[in-house]
Structures are given as C-alpha cells and as structure tokens.
Amino acid sequence: MAEAATRRRGRGGGGAARRAERTAVSVETAKYIERNIPLYEVLDDEALEIIERNAETILEEVGVNFVENPAALDRWREAGADVRGERVHIPRGLARKLCATAPSRFTQHARNPERNVEIGGKTLVCAPIYGPPFVRDMEGGRRYATMADFEKFVKLGYMSKWLHHSGGTVCEPTDIPVNKRHLDMLHAHMTLSDKPYMGSVTDPSRAQDSVEMCEILFGKEFVQDNTVMTSLINVNSPMTFDEVMMGALEVYATNNQACIISPFIVGGAMAPVSVMGTLTQVLAEVMAGIAYSQLIRPGAPVIFGAFVSSIDMNSGAPTFGTPEASQIIYGAGQLARRMGLPFRSGGSLCGSKLPDAQAAYETANTFNAVLLGGVNFMLHSCGWLEGGLVASFEKFVMDADQLGVLHKLAAGIATDENGQAMDAIREVGPGGHYLGCAHTQANFKEAFWRSDVLDYKPFETWHEDGERDTMTLANAKLHQMLNTYQQPALDPAIAEALAAYVAEKKSSMPDAFS
C-alpha cells in the first residue's frame, strides 16, 4: 500500500514538473512550413489548358471593369488593352505576359528578423482570421469587437507557436472611428508582436499611412528595398475592381509591398456553380489584378489568391469545408504554380456558430486541402466562426494548436537510419516492449506531435478534472497565454515616434464612423 502511494506521488511529481514546463512563458515560433511531401493535383493538363484558354477568352471578349479610376484605364490603354467606358478588354496573352514580371517567391521581413517568412515555392505561412465585426468568447458571448479585443488577438497570435504571421484586421474594433482605427490596429501589430503583419486597404490614404508607419519602424530605405507588408486586395466578383481596392494596390505596388490579389466568391452567386467555371473566373480575375500591379511597378510582389465558398441553395448562406471548395483549392493551386506565383487560399473556415463538431469538421477539411493543395499563404488560419462574421477566442486557440499538425505532416517521413529504427527492433526482439529501449529514450520528446489544448487523459482523470470539453480547455489556455504574455522589446525612440505619428494623424481629422 505504501509502495503504491509512493508510485502515485512519483507520477504526480513528474506531472507537476511537466505542467510547470508547459505553463512557463514561451514565445517560441516555429519556422514557416516547408513541404517535404507531394501535392495533390486534381486536374490533368488538358483540363488546365481549357481553363487557361477560357480565362483568356473572358479577358478579351467579356472584359473586366475598373471603376472610378481613370488613371487605371489610361494605364491599360497604354499597355495595349481595348478600353470601352470602364470596361477593359485585355487582348489574349497580354495579361499573362505582364504577370511574368511578378516574383515567384519573396521574403516578408518582420521587425524581429528571426520571424521573417518566405512566401512561395514549397512554403506555407499561416496568418490569423481577418475582418470580422463580431467576437465571441465563453465569458461575453457574441458581441461587437473592440480595440481591447483586437489587442488580445494580437497577443494570442504572438504567443502561438505554430502561427507565423500576426495578420491584419483580426477583428474590426467598432469602438474606434472608421477613419482612425487602422492606425491603432497597425500600431498594435507593430508594438504588441514582432511577427510580420498586414497593412490597411480600406482607403488608399490608409494604405499610405501604413507605408509611412513601416518607414518609422524599419527605415524608409529598407521599406523601399524590401517587403515588410502583405496586404489583401479583394476583387468584387464577378470581374470588377473598385477604386478603393485599386487605390490601395497602387500604393503598395509603388512602394514594393506585397498584395494578395484575391477574388471573393460565393459559388452560385458570384461565379458559376461548376468547379471548372469558377476556376476559370478566378484565373481571369487574378490575372487582370496581377497584371495591373505589374503595370504600376514591374516586379512588385503579389500572391495569386482564391477565396471561394459554395452556397446553400435553400437559405442562400455561404457554406465552408465542402468538397467543392477543396476541389477549387486544389485546382487554383495548380493554376498558380503554372504561372510561377505564390498561392493564397483556405483557413479555419466554417459556418458554425460555436467551436463545435461542425466547426471542427469543416475546418479540418479546409486545412487538409490547404496542405495538399500547395497554399503558400493561409489567411484565416485560426479563429474563424459563423462564416467569417465572428472571431472566436476559443477557436483561435484551438485552430492555432491544430496548425502544429500541418507542420508535422508537411515534414514528411524520415527514412534515415534513425527513422528506420533497426537498432530498436534488434534491441527489443520478440515479445518485448519499446518503452525503455535506447531509441525510444533518444526520440520520445519529438517522436509524436502533441496538442497543447486537447485532452489525452483517461476517463477517470478527465472526470475528476471536471469533464471539461474542448472549448472549456481552450478558454483556460487562452487565459493562461494572456496572463503570461510579455511585450516584445522595441527601441524606445521608434516606439515614441510611432505613438507620435498615430496621435498626430488622429488629431488631424474629425471622427467618422462610416
């Protein structure tokens, strides 16, 4: 009896030590993913050639709208396009020729050089959710987002090991005037994290503010010679570029900053219901946008984007994690690689209202397609809920944890001598066990990926601990992360200059909430 009690104390002591290690302050960030596994190609060469030919037909015969931007129309005329009103008809082959100057891979620099990311080739960079006006957590339920919520998400992103990028509008802080909130958001990314981030695209002047703030943080010359922002330029599908998005693109391309040129498509509403038809429209829209970026500045870094969901034909609501969405990710990835361009798609997409089984299934379906489809930049990697209307704190933590699975899968299978494990098999022999053998002792810490959120306890222990479900565990984890957060150091002179810039800009204009 005493021996049994001693064994229990021994296990408890080891467990306590491990728990202390897990709860220690850590801001370790895994390097961006580099795939050592083959990609899945859903389309053969004949199908890809059909899509490419049809996309060229759309650009030439149907055309693309560039609205309320006379300068854009002039640039297209000079390039050889047929401009009729605000409709630009791009001769066959012209868009693809212009796209050829865009780089196939680029580095986005972070203020901490150890956090720099490579976008393109075999890499996958994960960035958090973008754009929701609402947030949700177990304490406050569903509510409009505030700047305090925004700052919490930035801190969680900084503390998340498997997240490589701080993102952009991780939620929309509705308590700050529309014309000023971009300043506070960018300032939070720059000061509360040292990971790479995104700039503002809601107005060309706000894009310019983003560039100027980067010049304070990095130095003006460095910004002009290097990419320090990757920002999202959405196409108003079908086949329309508005003056706000194009104006932001012009600012970023002029200053050598990267843009994701991304159609925003709900299949059946903004594109055909067929996968081939949607891929054709995606390619036409992306080619037009990337070609325009190269008219602004040849060599400006860009990413081929594809954000596509299907639609529930009964309710009209967008759906996520569907087979058709995965097929589009696979196909669009093939098209992007044929153009030699980095590819953006996917995320923790779901239509669920809570971080429940539906959310998990739909998110997992998309994560798998992202990994095997060759995505290089995954926006919305964590926190997405309710079709993107809600940023969930608990789901942010759950999704960020699951990104570790992608890292493990992408690494492939080790086939070296250690991976073959013949010494272990010889040592143990028939009828033995591997728990104490030399190979296990040398490899057990890294052999199996382990979640920092999910529950692996036996039933009795789980019951004694309160029968906590995954959302409850994620809630506890997020509070632990926020409680142990420590702000990364920043040169006081730079911090002061950034704060002064934000204060001056905000005081120079009246508040506007629309």
TrEMBL record:
Residues 1-21 are annotated as: Disordered. It is an enzyme of class 2 (transferase). Keywords: Methyltransferase, Transferase. Transmembrane segments: none annotated. Coiled coil: none annotated. Signal peptide: none annotated. GO terms for biological process: methanogenesis; methylation. Belongs to the trimethylamine methyltransferase family. This is Methyltransferase.
